[in-house]
Amino acid sequence: MTVIKGSDVAKALNAQTAEEIASWNGIVPKAAIIRVGDNPDDISYERGAVKRLESVGIACQLVTLPGDITQQAFLEAFSKVNDDPSVHGILLLRPLPPQLDETPVRNQINPDKDIDGISPINLAKVFSCDDSGFAPCTAKAVMEILDYAGVNLHGKNVAVVGASLVVGRPLSMLMLAREATVTLCHIYTKDVPKECREADIVVVACGVPKLIGEHHISEGTVVIDVGINLDENGKLCGDVDFDAVAPKASLITPVPGGVGAVTTSILASHVVKAARRLTGKENR
Ligand code: NAD
């Protein structure tokens, strides 16, 4: 069994991103990170993202809005960032507080600045195998890990557990584009253990701590754990029971130190892709 460390995957990608920025003769790509309120998970993600982006040479503009902001004030603040020509990429931390509806922002965000793939235009591109847009970073991070580990998806059976718009659904499409046969499982799937046992690759993104145990996995399966949860002792854990599953897996990602470590590197590469385009370095 091999444990794939996210930091190894991220290192290769970060080097590539930093090298490209260094060749731009002083043009500095800029990302705006919009946070509403003081949710500790958002603050922690923001801190990690800023550290990663700045380490490769990307400037960050933090836009912090009050947690009780009205829909109108939020949309006005968002428009300002969206229309700012010095901003190449926008990351909106979600979920938003309950008084805010994110649908108008999804529709309004400039698709060329949409580095986490929330606009319907970018999601449609993922679904139509058009890689000119931006896929959600976490889904892309899973693909990056599989590529790094040399896992060929062609003809493989994959079970994706969790069907959210941010991870499971776009990931299924990215895998289908590589000729995998994908079973997308969700809370109402009749027999998740059976679907997983029949798969060569199992990706779990459902937000249920240690849901996937030894009885879900066949010998030699590749297991990618997207989940980030706290266990009963308040310790970070994934959606996979690592100790139970690892002995049967051929490759497995840990939590922490797996997919999460790659997601912000994908984000950085997306800022560069956006800046490349918006500064006229690349024609569409
Ligand atoms: P979500 O709540 O939006 O969606 C959960 C999905 O899992 C739904 O489709 C639901 O039907 C399914 N599900 C829930 N319980 C299930 C069960 N018992 N059996 C089968 N399916 C079940 O969640 P999300 O936003 O996609 O996040 C999922 C997990 O991934 C969370 O732990 C989250 O913290 C983590 N996450 C990690 C990253 C990262 O960068 N590593 C990024 C985003 C989300």
Verbal overview:
With 284 residues, the chain is α/β, with parallel strands linked by helices. The chain has two domains: 24-111, Rossmann fold, CATH 3.40.50; 137-259, NAD(P)-binding Rossmann-like Domain (Rossmann fold, 3-Layer(aba) Sandwich), CATH 3.40.50. It is built from ten helices and eleven strands. The protein has a six-stranded parallel β-sheet with strand order 1-11-8-7-5-6. The chain has a three-stranded parallel β-sheet with strand order 3-2-4, with helices on both faces. A two-stranded antiparallel ribbon has the order 9-10. The model has no long low-confidence stretch (mean pLDDT 97). Nicotinamide-adenine-dinucleotide binds next to helix 10. Residues 138, 161-164, 166-168, 185-187, 189, 192, 205-208, 211, 226-229, 259-260, 263 line the site of nicotinamide-adenine-dinucleotide.
Furnish the topology, listing elements before pairings:
Blueprint: E1 2-3, H1 6-22, E2 30-36, H2 40-55, E3 59-65, H3 71-83, E4 89-92, H4 103-108, H5 120-127, H6 137-148, E5 157-161, H7 168-176, E6 181-185, H8 192-197, E7 201-204, E8 222-225, E9 229-230, E10 236-237, H9 242-245, E11 251-252, H10 259-278
Parallel strand pairs: 1-11, 2-3, 2-4, 5-6, 5-7, 7-8, 8-11
Antiparallel strand pairs: 9-10
Bound molecules: nicotinamide-adenine-dinucleotide (NAD).
Nicotinamide-adenine-dinucleotide binds next to helix 10.
Summed up:
This protein is of the alpha/beta class. The protein has helices at residues 6-22, 40-55, 71-83, 103-108, 120-127, 137-148, 168-176, 192-197, 242-245, 259-278, and strands at 2-3, 30-36, 59-65, 89-92, 157-161, 181-185, 201-204, 222-225, 229-230, 236-237, 251-252.
